[in-house]
Amino acid sequence: MDKIKVTNIKKTYENLDAINNISLSVANGQFISILGPSGCGKSTLLNIISGLEKPTSGDVLIDGESYIGKSGRVSYMHQKDLLLPWKNIIDNVSIPLVLQGLTREKARKRAMTYLDDFGLRGFEKVFPGQLSGGMRQRAALLRTYLFKSDVMLLDEPFGSLDAMTKRKMHLWLMDIFNNYKSSIIFITHDIDEAIFLSDKVYLLSERPAEVKIELDVDLERPRNNKTFSNPKYIMLKEKILNIL
Amino acid sequence: MDKIKVTNIKKTYENLDAINNISLSVANGQFISILGPSGCGKSTLLNIISGLEKPTSGDVLIDGESYIGKSGRVSYMHQKDLLLPWKNIIDNVSIPLVLQGLTREKARKRAMTYLDDFGLRGFEKVFPGQLSGGMRQRAALLRTYLFKSDVMLLDEPFGSLDAMTKRKMHLWLMDIFNNYKSSIIFITHDIDEAIFLSDKVYLLSERPAEVKIELDVDLERPRNNKTFSNPKYIMLKEKILNIL
Amino acid sequence: MSKTIDKLIPLGFSIFIILVWEIFVKALQIPKWILPAPSIIINSLFSNLPYMFNHTIATLAEALLGFVLAIIISFIIAFLMDSISFIRKAIYPLLIISQTIPIISVAPLFIIWFGYGILPKIIVVQLVCFFPIVISLLGGLASVDDDQINLLRSMGASNLELFKMVKLPASMPSFFSGLKISASYSIMGAIIGEWLGAERGLGVFMTLAQKSFQTEKVFAAILIITVLSLGIFLVVSIMEKIIIPWKN
Amino acid sequence: MSKTIDKLIPLGFSIFIILVWEIFVKALQIPKWILPAPSIIINSLFSNLPYMFNHTIATLAEALLGFVLAIIISFIIAFLMDSISFIRKAIYPLLIISQTIPIISVAPLFIIWFGYGILPKIIVVQLVCFFPIVISLLGGLASVDDDQINLLRSMGASNLELFKMVKLPASMPSFFSGLKISASYSIMGAIIGEWLGAERGLGVFMTLAQKSFQTEKVFAAILIITVLSLGIFLVVSIMEKIIIPWKN
Amino acid sequence: KEEVKEGQKADTNKATLMLDWFPNTNHTGIYVAKEKGFYEAEGLDINIVQPPEGGTVQIIGAKKAEFGISYQEEVTNARSEEIPVKAIAGVIQHNTSGFASPMVKNIKTPKDLENKAYGGWGTPAETAMIKALMEKHDADFKKVKMINIGSADFFTSVQKDVDFSWIFYGWTGVEAELKGMDLNYISLNEEEPILDFYTPVIIINEDLEKENPALIKKFLKATSKGYEYAINNPEEAANILVAKVPELDKDLVIASQKYLSEKYQGDADKWGIMEEGRWENYAKWMFEQKLIAKEIDSSKAFTNEFLPKE
Ligand SMILES: Nc1ncnc2c1ncn2[C@@H]1O[C@H](COP(=O)(O)OP(=O)(O)OP(=O)(O)O)[C@@H](O)[C@H]1O
Ligand SMILES: Nc1ncnc2c1ncn2[C@@H]1O[C@H](COP(=O)(O)OP(=O)(O)OP(=O)(O)O)[C@@H](O)[C@H]1O
Ligand SMILES: O=C([O-])O
Ligand SMILES: [Mg+2]
Ligand SMILES: [Mg+2]
Description:
The complex is a heteropentamer, with 2 copies of chain A, 2 copies of chain C and 1 copy of chain E. Chain A is an alpha/beta fold. Chain A has helices at 42-50, 89-93, 95-99, 104-112, 133-146, 163-180, 191-197, 231-243, and strands at residues 4-13, 16-26, 31-35, 57-62, 65-66, 75-77, 151-155, 183-187, 200-204, 209-216. Chain A has 2 domains: 4-74 and 150-243, 3-Layer(aba) Sandwich (Rossmann fold), CATH 3.40.50; 83-148. Chain C is 82% helix and 0% strand. Chain C contains 9 helices and no strands. Chain C has helices at residues 3-27, 38-83, 85-100, 107-114, 119-142, 146-154, 159-195, 202-211, 215-243. In chain E, β6 (117-120), α6 and β7 (145-148) form a beta-alpha-beta unit. Residues 1-10 of chain E have low confidence and may be disordered. In chain E, the strands form 2 sheets. In chain E, strands 2-1-3-10-4 form a 5-stranded mixed beta sheet. By secondary structure, chain E is of the alpha/beta class. Chains in contact: A-B, A-D, B-C, C-D, C-E, D-E. At the C-D interface, α1, α3, α4, α5 and α7 of C face α1, α3, α4, α5 and α7 of D. One adenosine-5'-triphosphate sits between chains B (13, 16, 18, 36, 38-44, 79, 207) and A (130-135, 160).
């Protein structure tokens, strides 16, 4: 059975069709990426899958159960970082732990162990307003990760990162992905990133979004720097570039 | 004489060195890019050049005149879009025109002519909260452009755009650049973008930022898709990747 | 819940309270000069309505003039305080002092300065109403995103333009909190003003009714006061919806 | 401007006003039972100080107890109104009504219900103070970023947790606007409460002074009221700085 | 609240007395009785409380205090509204109030009130009184301008648009003397006998008469002693009041007390006694003037029964 099954989602705002008709599926432990033009409806789709917005029609099944309008099931990193301005970084990222019942002290301690990986060490007492754009994004990603659901939705998590930091984050993400067998839906504008990370890539059309094509990425894991020179990789990239 | 001359800028926040020592210069009509790790101090540098923040020491000269702490001289697109939530898109982007004394009606009309280029046609009456991340970025860029200074500072203007839209924006940006002979400082994490657009690329170190190296890009203009296969381009890219 | 039900809830709840009151008064046989039953109040209201009309108009006029004056003065004060730091520091304590002085204790001064006409009442309403508006406006102005200010300043916005384009809209939600508070006070402010001496107005009507122990008339007047105040509050709430469209 | 100069501005401005007042009264030979000169007021203050002390303590106690009660009740009401839409709709009109009723008109009811002690005064202070707090809190709560709420809800936050982690902090700036308004009213609320009948308190003192035509004593009391109110306001302002560190 | 409950039990000795206004020389006898231990001697513990604006009659009507201070017009008014209060002693034998004006306004008789401005509270009773006085002197009431001065005092209001105002001579009149301000004064009781109503009076709830007559008797016995002391020792009595209420102006209290001590008992046989005729006539007049909606039974509005028999 599919972990996530999205069928015939349609979303219309007042006088604007955002999503025309999208169906997709994610198998258990699968990593899929979504590529599509700016403003086509990608964030809207994740909002719907996470249960924060209701589709005009269509259904979202997770483990076979419908989650239309029901939030709380998945880890979701929004495109906006949504850090709380009144909490310092360590308290911001430990929110999901506190919500799961840990004491504040324990939550902080647990979160603290990840600060190095996320390049936030030394900034635990700083308010979000004093962080750089990329650091805010990393904090938001860490917060999402600490929610620890078996389903993660990530909306352009690495958009403001330099290549180096991005690569570090990729490796880290692959690590969790392999260890925890999470199912991940990942939005990005970076074609390399999409291919490198995913088992499957969905290309969306202009708004109102439809699935233009669904491409399987059969590159063996674990992937590494050599992956980029794999002919399959290069072919896939070319194919995507042609379609877009 | 250099259009912009930044000398020995140092910036220290309470107990954090953000910028160690940066000097750079932009000739009249030159396009320079800045690449550097996330959180190293790039946005801080632009804040200082624009006059919004004061450096701990160092000087910023524009046309030979010091602009420490004096804002209003340059067009500046922040990393945050800073669209005003209470103005619809057309009024948001026409702010600089209104501030320059145009009536609201005229300002709207003028701004309207750019909406197609920026893919915002049809969204003029919409509030920023109802736009996608990439659309907000494009609106912020249009607003910056309409300020029409001969110096433009752009902080990751295309971070949330897909490849296609980005390419369109690049061509548009090259167009203005060539027509108006603006001097531009451009922050990005995208190496291709940096090389493709610039006359010179500065690579910054980890925080506290220093200039690691300054690379001239001597690719003939106008540039186009063929530029990417130019051997000079490929060499330059490799060099940058090695340094980072 | 549907829109109609939404509007029925407060109505239903009010009716419930009135019923409890009626039953309570009847059951405990509370004499009407202590606490009249709602039925008696309504009855008294209708039999006195034509002749309460003049009083109502007088009070409403004082309240509205004072309220509008308060809004205008609040904007001027808030603008000056926000733009000129010297004025802010000099005036802030005076603003607070203006609220801490019980008006009735300085009533003689009011009369000597402003006489017995409608003016002292309007001034009392203004005094009562402007403070919540100013404080809320200032609070709103202080909460503006500095980066937005900086952006517009870097585009050459003058102080006035910054106020108009950024500060004012950003402080509208807070401003309306203050305006709602003041709206609720405006009629009561007029009543207090009428204690300083008046020929007409619901305050005069109530005093006379009270002195002749016609408690039901006092409550009939309170009912009118309440309806007027709720009316002004409602108008302000509707204005809020219109003026802050980006919040919906 | 340096910090010390900042603090000297309001002081200097106040001294300026007092001087103008003194000169004005002396020059126009205004009799002291109409408007006493500041020097006479200060003089009267010091000669009556020891025995005004008790009155001051009584009023301050009423004001502080009422103010704290108002804060507690405001939070409870705002929380309930924010979480349960039925309660919000049912209670909103009642909140406004509670502010529109001139307390003096129903004074006998207060005595009949709450007796002669400190209770009715505390209730009056509470009634005066809670409204600006509730309205500002509700305004603040309404201004919260929905996306932040949604994010935390999607992480399984309960209503109470949402209130604590997002809504409350987000509405703190607005809350403090309301709190400052109420702080300025608290002492005056106690004075009004004392008009319902009291043995001690600055309100009693003022009435007695006024009725024996000792205007300078009335103003001496107003001076104390003003200083107390400014003091409470100052404490609230300092608390604001401490509780909203992310705004600095 | 507590005092009230206990006060209604026959054998307790606690009771509350609610004043009509701020404590002043009208109340001296009560403060004397308390301070000199006259109440204590009767086994009483009297708690003196100040009223909410105009609330005494209702509080007594609701039995939240045993004794209250009011005045004849108010009691008459209250009874016509069926509030069960009753006067048990007249504190001052004759009405000491009247219309005062600064000498410069030249108002010597009610005739002179024409074309003048009256500053008052705008009650129908005031209108009726002025009208009655003027009609007696063939003056035209329509020529008087009525101004509501709210809470402003006499001295302030005559600074502004007002020419004359209603005062209690024993307080405001005496203050004018102290200030050296010359007044013209038209005394109500001298000008028109009908207006010689009792003010102030001590009141109770009718029920107390049946429930605890002993309490009333003891209370009035001690209170009488208090007023008698004040009649005989104005200066000492004034000092007792000032000691209890030091916020008052001592000079004013002493001067006022000297004036009032002579008026408490006046021409009556003993302090506190009230004449049925004056209650009846005033009630009738009020009804004729439409100041009350229905006639009252004056005999039930007051009683001398509880005054000490000597
Ligand atoms: N709350 C809303 N009300 C009205 N329209 C909305 C709302 N949210 C989004 N939209 C519209 O829906 C369309 C899709 O938006 P969405 O944010 O899903 O785009 P996206 O694919 O994530 O784009 P980007 O890559 O730029 O982030 C846009 O045209 C946007 O204007
Ligand atoms: N107002 C501030 N107060 C204190 N520290 C700040 C402030 N603004 C920025 N910093 C710190 O200065 C450093 C540089 O920040 P800056 O925003 O310039 O980085 P950046 O190079 O633009 O990064 P990014 O690529 O992630 O946007 C960061 O460590 C940040 O935490
Ligand atoms: O200020 C008031 O008198 O209520
Ligand atoms: Mg998006
Ligand atoms: Mg940056």
